[in-house]
Amino acid sequence: MIQRFIELGEGYSDIYELLELARLNRERIHRLIRLDTTIGNNEKTSLAVALEPAAPGKLMPIYICREGVTNPDVTPNQRYDLFSEMAEELDLTIHSLSVKDSKQFKEDELYYQYLIGILRMNRYIPPLQ
User: Fold this and answer.
1) Can you give 40-72 as a three-state secondary structure string?
2) Which of 64, 57, 48 is nearest to 1 (CA)?
């Protein structure tokens, strides 16, 4: 199985798109993910939805709004509240991890490879088969 990040933007419209993707694909949701990081002096959070592969495909898409939300533990905010409310509505748990920020990587692809490794290591997504 191949895992691939599909990046949405950082704005409200992008969060709404992420929420709608989750609601419309409720049966396919593998995991809801919150990735916390620090960029300079700013505490940021990425929100992601990992879906099971569509039949007969072997691609596990992970839709992400990267580092676009202020860490809700530092400053409560509506963007995270919307994600949390959606998780409650779907009766799902948000799984959290602390990770390096994307600015530490020269290319986005390297950052996403790092995240896939972290998610596999923590058993949030399955290993390659």
Assistant:
1) CCEEEEEEEEEECCCCCCCEEEEEEEEEEEECC
2) 57
Q: Which residues of the chain have pLDDT under 70?
A: 129
Our CA dihedral for 100, 6, 12, 77, rounded to 10 degrees, sits at -30
**Whether the Cβ atoms of residue 33 and residue 50 lie closer than 8 Å to each other:** yes
Q: Enter the pTM of the model.
A: 0.96
In the chain, domain spans: 2-121
Q: Is the domain 2-121 a CATH 3.40.1530 member?
A: yes
**Structure confidence by residue, pLDDT tens digits, 26-39:** 999 999 999 999 99
